[in-house]
# Entry
Amino acid sequence: MREEQGQQPPSSISITKGKAWIFGDNINTDIIIPFRFKSRTNDPYEMAKYAMYGYDPNFHKKISKDDIIVAGRNFGGGSSREQAPVALKYAGISAVVAESFARIFYRNSFTIGLPALEIPAIKDKVKQGDELSIDIAKFIVQNLRTKETFKAQVVPKFMRQMLLEGGLVEYYKKYKQFPWIQT
Amino acid sequence: MAGEIFIVDVDLAMAQDSTGPLAIRSLNEMDIDKIYDPSKVLLVIDHTFPAADEKVANLHHLMRDFASNHSCMLVEGSISHQYILEYLASPGMMILGADSHTCQAGCVGAFATGIGSTEIAAVWATGQLWLRVPESIKIKLSGNFDKGVFARDLILHYIGEVGEDGANYKSLEWKFSNDYTKKKFSMDSRACISNASMECGAKISVFPIDEITTKYLNENPRSYNNSNNTDNNMQVRIDVQPGDSAQYKDEFEIQCDKVEPQVSGPDNVDKVHSVDELTNLEIDQAFIGSSTNGRIEDLEVAAHILKGRKVHKNTRCVVTPASVKVYEEAIKRRYVEIYLESGAVFTNATCGACVGTHLGALGENEICISSSSRNFVGRMGALSSKVYLASPATVAASAIEGRIADPRRYFQSR
# Structure
């Protein structure tokens, strides 16, 4: 991942396809990006260099654009650091599918435009390297190897709209108001 | 009703030096240059204070400029949660912070929870945010702790029972079975429990508003002494108590006298052991501090144990107060002399070693016992280092013995 000033953030489209990376339960935000790296920069491309550092410092080099993280329970527990979903998004991860998410990580993912889909027992239905297709508008995940389709936990409409626009900042830039105002 | 979404008016919106810069970046990207109400905006430079290097210093500079340009509150060198408790939080306040441990302010009966940077930026811009009403879990406390057992042991015990996501999205409501138990839970102890409730995912963790709350608020008047801040409405006190129709998703009862000193770790907070299971594990560092356990009550316990004793030759012991107020009190009570005579290091108030960035980071394969908030992989330094969490008493006893130690024998009469 090179630092590219002025580059557009990764675009959000309603269908994304990518290869699955499987993780266990309780992958916390210190694993996703350690404090000592995230506290020394305000540049999302710099944060991306440390995505999943606590699991493998070279993770950002091993993944391909649009790859998808599939995890067990309580993904993103611990700190409120928004840098966690930001690092994953700017490293090229197009979505996180997990059996459950920690509260703040879940909010932050929608806020920064990283699709976070909650699907019970998904970890048993996907193998490392499986190709997945995700419909962000409909919140549906398909395993292209097994052809199985999974429906994710539904979220309020304003959260999905925010996600489809690419996050809160992009939503605000377009509509000049915050998405929850419409509720 | 639980599950409903509301747009709430926020009374205090905080960001610190590792979340504030990103909030400021988001505001700039949205081209928002006006803050809804600067008297409700708090920026705290606490995590890496004073700056450990040039990169951190530049981000601190960004925060100071922002606070100055918008005339909002700026605090340096006290941990945000402790500062909020000491000066700003009141019962019934809605407090949002770009820091997970913001839930600490539940100890005075505030609705306080953590959110991310861009959302705090939205609160700064509008004074509002959406929140989902959480389901509640009631935990009734009875009895009293044995000597050498503290609030931290109780909350570690609870987290060990329910797991790291045992209260995810939920509200924890703490209750006392009787006045005897209630009087044993000082404000410092309540703050420790509300703070550490984050480690089982709690959205808020609230104590009853009682005479201990009132006494604390009377002794620590709500104020912010910054000439920038002209209109501060932090004196609001609302007596919030659950109504008769309150519904609970789950109820627990904990008998305090049955709780033993607990040690959690490594790598996950819900890996909780009784101290006996780990008493032969040698340690490289003992850390007493953080917003979870860096208050004066914690420093008092550390001084009690370290007094007249020496830190083990193979162990470093670092004591870090949670705020300037705690720091001053530790000097006044002459605890600092005790620490220095024992061979411990006493640092300025900061998050410091808890986040592994300065004042006590760990090297490859090092083992630390810590009163701080988390023991996650690489939390305090090298990925191969290991962190065990315990009460300040267990940490201080371990510092003397050079291995994880049971603190109870330091509370026998001597």
